[in-house]
Protein backbone atom coordinates (compact mmCIF):
# COMPACT_ATOMS: atom_id res chain seq x y z
CA UNK A 1 0.00 0.00 0.00
CA UNK A 2 1.14 3.57 -0.72
CA UNK A 3 0.26 6.69 1.26
CA UNK A 4 0.78 10.04 -0.45
CA UNK A 5 1.06 13.58 0.93
CA UNK A 6 1.27 16.63 -1.34
CA UNK A 7 2.67 20.06 -0.52
CA UNK A 8 3.92 23.16 -2.27
CA UNK A 9 0.71 24.73 -3.48
CA UNK A 10 -0.06 28.40 -3.03
CA UNK A 11 -1.02 31.68 -4.64
CA UNK A 12 1.11 32.97 -7.49
CA UNK A 13 0.76 35.58 -10.22
CA UNK A 14 0.43 34.60 -13.85
CA UNK A 15 3.86 33.87 -15.28
CA UNK A 16 5.18 32.70 -11.93
CA UNK A 17 6.40 29.29 -10.81
CA UNK A 18 5.61 26.71 -8.15
CA UNK A 19 7.08 23.31 -7.33
CA UNK A 20 4.75 20.68 -5.95
CA UNK A 21 6.04 17.78 -3.87
CA UNK A 22 4.41 14.44 -3.12
CA UNK A 23 6.00 12.25 -0.48
CA UNK A 24 5.08 8.59 -0.49
CA UNK A 25 5.32 5.94 2.18
CA UNK A 26 5.25 2.21 1.71
CA UNK A 27 7.52 -0.26 0.02
CA UNK A 28 5.82 -0.06 -3.36
CA UNK A 29 6.43 3.65 -4.10
CA UNK A 30 9.61 3.07 -6.08
CA UNK A 31 7.92 0.34 -8.11
CA UNK A 32 4.86 2.41 -8.99
CA UNK A 33 4.17 4.78 -11.82
CA UNK A 34 3.17 8.19 -10.47
CA UNK A 35 1.02 10.97 -11.83
CA UNK A 36 -0.34 14.43 -11.14
CA UNK A 37 -3.99 15.24 -11.69
CA UNK A 38 -5.90 18.45 -11.04
CA UNK A 39 -9.47 19.45 -10.39
CA UNK A 40 -10.87 22.93 -10.82
CA UNK A 41 -14.17 23.98 -9.20
CA UNK A 42 -17.11 22.52 -11.06
CA UNK A 43 -14.91 20.44 -13.34
CA UNK A 44 -13.85 16.82 -13.50
CA UNK A 45 -10.44 15.71 -12.30
CA UNK A 46 -8.02 15.74 -15.24
CA UNK A 47 -4.65 14.27 -16.09
CA UNK A 48 -1.66 16.61 -15.94
CA UNK A 49 1.49 14.48 -16.08
CA UNK A 50 2.75 10.96 -15.40
CA UNK A 51 6.10 9.26 -14.96
CA UNK A 52 7.11 5.62 -15.00
CA UNK A 53 8.71 3.82 -12.05
CA UNK A 54 12.28 4.63 -13.02
CA UNK A 55 11.72 8.19 -14.14
CA UNK A 56 12.86 7.31 -17.64
CA UNK A 57 9.56 8.08 -19.34
CA UNK A 58 7.15 10.95 -18.77
CA UNK A 59 3.86 12.06 -20.29
CA UNK A 60 2.05 15.40 -20.27
CA UNK A 61 -1.29 17.02 -20.98
CA UNK A 62 -0.83 19.07 -24.14
CA UNK A 63 -1.59 22.40 -22.48
CA UNK A 64 1.23 21.99 -19.92
CA UNK A 65 3.95 20.68 -22.26
CA UNK A 66 6.98 22.93 -22.13
CA UNK A 67 5.80 24.58 -18.90
CA UNK A 68 5.54 21.68 -16.40
CA UNK A 69 8.12 19.02 -15.58
CA UNK A 70 7.41 15.85 -13.62
CA UNK A 71 10.27 14.08 -11.87
CA UNK A 72 10.87 11.67 -9.02
CA UNK A 73 13.53 10.68 -6.51
CA UNK A 74 12.94 7.07 -5.49
CA UNK A 75 15.63 7.25 -2.80
CA UNK A 76 13.49 9.88 -1.10
CA UNK A 77 10.11 8.39 -2.06
CA UNK A 78 9.27 11.77 -3.56
CA UNK A 79 7.50 12.96 -6.68
CA UNK A 80 7.78 16.51 -8.01
CA UNK A 81 5.94 18.79 -10.40
CA UNK A 82 7.83 21.91 -11.43
CA UNK A 83 5.33 24.40 -12.87
CA UNK A 84 6.63 27.42 -14.77
CA UNK A 85 4.90 30.21 -16.65
CA UNK A 86 1.68 29.52 -14.77
CA UNK A 87 -1.63 30.66 -16.21
CA UNK A 88 -4.95 31.41 -14.46
CA UNK A 89 -6.33 28.30 -16.19
CA UNK A 90 -3.91 26.21 -14.11
CA UNK A 91 -5.83 27.09 -10.95
CA UNK A 92 -7.01 23.86 -9.33
CA UNK A 93 -6.43 21.39 -6.54
CA UNK A 94 -3.50 19.21 -7.58
CA UNK A 95 -3.36 15.55 -6.58
CA UNK A 96 -0.63 12.95 -6.88
CA UNK A 97 -1.57 9.36 -7.55
CA UNK A 98 0.08 5.95 -7.88
CA UNK A 99 -0.57 3.00 -10.18
CA UNK A 100 1.35 0.04 -11.55
CA UNK A 101 1.90 1.82 -14.87
CA UNK A 102 1.62 5.39 -16.22
CA UNK A 103 -1.89 6.14 -17.44
CA UNK A 104 -3.98 9.21 -18.28
CA UNK A 105 -7.20 7.61 -16.97
CA UNK A 106 -8.08 8.91 -13.52
CA UNK A 107 -10.10 5.78 -12.75
CA UNK A 108 -7.21 3.31 -12.81
CA UNK A 109 -5.14 4.93 -10.08
CA UNK A 110 -5.11 3.05 -6.81
CA UNK A 111 -3.73 5.57 -4.35
CA UNK A 112 -4.29 9.30 -3.98
CA UNK A 113 -3.03 12.15 -1.87
CA UNK A 114 -5.27 14.71 -0.22
CA UNK A 115 -4.46 17.46 -2.72
CA UNK A 116 -2.81 20.87 -2.61
CA UNK A 117 -4.40 24.10 -3.85
CA UNK A 118 -2.75 26.09 -6.63
CA UNK A 119 -4.20 29.51 -7.40
CA UNK A 120 -2.88 31.64 -10.26
CA UNK A 121 -3.99 35.26 -10.34
CA UNK A 122 -4.13 37.28 -13.54
Write the layout of secondary structure elements.
Elements: E1 3-7, E2 10-13, E3 18-25, E4 33-39, E5 46-51, E6 58-60, E7 68-73, E8 78-83, E9 92-99, E10 111-112, E11 116-121
Parallel strand pairs: 2-11
Antiparallel strand pairs: 1-3, 3-8, 4-5, 4-9, 5-6, 7-8, 9-10, 9-11
List the total number of helices.
Answer: 0
Strand/helix succession: EEEEEEEEEEE
Radius of gyration: 13 Å
Number of strand segments: 11
Shape: globular
Largest sheet: 7 strands, mixed
Strand content: over 45%
Features:
single chain, 122 residues, mainly beta, 11 strands
Describe the structure.
It is globular and about 40 Å long. With 122 residues, the protein is mainly β. The strands form 2 sheets. Strands 2, 4, 5, 6, 9, 10 and 11 form a 7-stranded mixed beta sheet that branches. The protein has strands at residues 3-7, 10-13, 18-25, 33-39, 46-51, 58-60, 68-73, 78-83, 92-99, 111-112, 116-121. The chain starts with a strand and ends with a strand. The mean pLDDT is 95. A hairpin with a 6-residue loop joins strand 5 and strand 6.
Amino acid sequence: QVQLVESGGGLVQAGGSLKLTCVGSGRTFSGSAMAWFRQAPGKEREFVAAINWSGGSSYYKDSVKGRFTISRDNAKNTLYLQMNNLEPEDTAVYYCAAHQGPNVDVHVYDYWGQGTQVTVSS
